Amino acid sequence: MTPLWKPLGFQRESPLMNLDAPCCPRPLKSGWPVLAKSGRPGGFTLIELLVVIAIVAILASLILGGLAQAKEQTRTLRCLNNLKQLQLAWHLYAVDNEDFFPGNDHWGSTLKDLVWAPGTMLFETDLIPSGFEQAVTNKMLLMSRLPGSIGPYAGSAEIYHCPNDKSYIILGGVKVPRIRSYKANQFVGSAGGGQALNNVATNRYVFKTTQFTGLSPSDTFILIDGHESSMGDSQFQPPTFDQFALNLFGFSTLPGARHRGSGTMSFGDGHVEKHRWKEKSTIIPVTRITYYIADVGPSRDVRWLAEHATCKIK
């Protein structure tokens, strides 16, 4: 009697169902064979892995370098914006004071002083007179209505500080950031009369907006990013034509170079710019001791500062 069913295991209609058939590529619907697996083990070889690591490292360095450059550009733009706002405050002061510029005397010398930014930026390593510590960290002093100050026009004490300025003073064992990074051209600004003016016979001073005689406001810097080790009070003493006559090339006040070898400054017509220094001798390392005079020898940067600070009286 014939059985009504047959076990599936005994069906041999297709060779694909034959477990004892030799291994060989079987045709696909497209007609192309499936390639047999090679005997090579899976994963990367050591050389391939090293190549991949090297490529990843190169890409990471490019990305990180781009991010660092973008961050620096952002900090430079913030610094230039600070100077723009300070220059506007400088102008508004003149509008309200019969065209006279804010004060640019040395701070703390006499009761007649006119100072655009009261205070002095020193280190605890300097010989600081008693009570001067507050002049380094007190933002309210910058914003005060002391004679000659632009504080009431500035709006915020934060704009007095460059984001790349990392200087500090240690008070009571604590690092406290200093609050000002900018100084003003010695030859521009009002004077209270209590201090003698230097080189007044040979270098032109500008006390009012209408006194740019022999000078172009667009070529005369007003505010400048100062060097951390040469900050002190808010007056910047640029090189003068007198010292060139004596064949002396140096800085009485050091300019800042914390924007990758460049400084920032504002000008008499209100514009701001970043200026790249030409000489390596201008880019002086920061020390936590205040000093001013630096003899750097013949220098294009020394002459450029003198030519953009004042003009020689003929």
Q: What can you tell me about this protein's structure?
A:
The chain has 314 residues and is α+β, with helices and mostly antiparallel strands. It is built from 6 helices and 9 strands; from the N terminus they run H-H-H-H-E-E-E-E-E-H-E-E-E-E-H. It has helices spanning 46-96, 133-137, 139-142, 151-154, 241-245, 300-307, and strands at residues 168-171, 174-177, 182-185, 221-225, 235-236, 250-251, 262-267, 272-276, 294-295. A hairpin with a 2-residue loop joins strand 1 (168-171) and strand 2 (174-177). It is globular, with a radius of gyration of 35 Å.
Poorly predicted tracts of residues: 4-17
| Number of E strands | 9
Given the C-alpha coordinates, what overall shape results?
Answer: globular
Helix count, per DSSP? 6
- As a whole number of angstroms, the C-alpha radius of gyration is 35 Å
Task: Please give the domain count.
Answer: 1
Mean pLDDT across residues: 83
